């Protein structure tokens, strides 16, 4: 279920590890998210958010979250 809090969380969550550590989940390349989908998303909220990010990217809706992202100092 999508709610406003979940969308805000997705818009402002950063990748905590790996090649794209520190990047917004919405800034991750679609190919990277597809790789995780094939290998298995991480357990818990991070994996759920990554799956949601992929779903939005596949549908071409990823840019809708841009205004919701907080700027990093």
Automatic annotation (TrEMBL):
InterPro entries: QSregVF_b. It comes from the Bacteria. This is DNA polymerase III subunit epsilon.
């Amino acid at each position: 279920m999508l709610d406003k809090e979940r969308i805000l969380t997705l818009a402002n969550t950063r990748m905590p590890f790996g090649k794209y550590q520190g990047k917004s989940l919405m800034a991750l390349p679609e190919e990277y998210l597809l790789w995780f989908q094939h290998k298995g998303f991480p357990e818990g909220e991070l994996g759920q958010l990554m799956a949601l990010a992929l779903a939005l990217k596949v549908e071409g809706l990823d840019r809708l979250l841009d205004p919701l992202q907080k700027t990093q100092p």
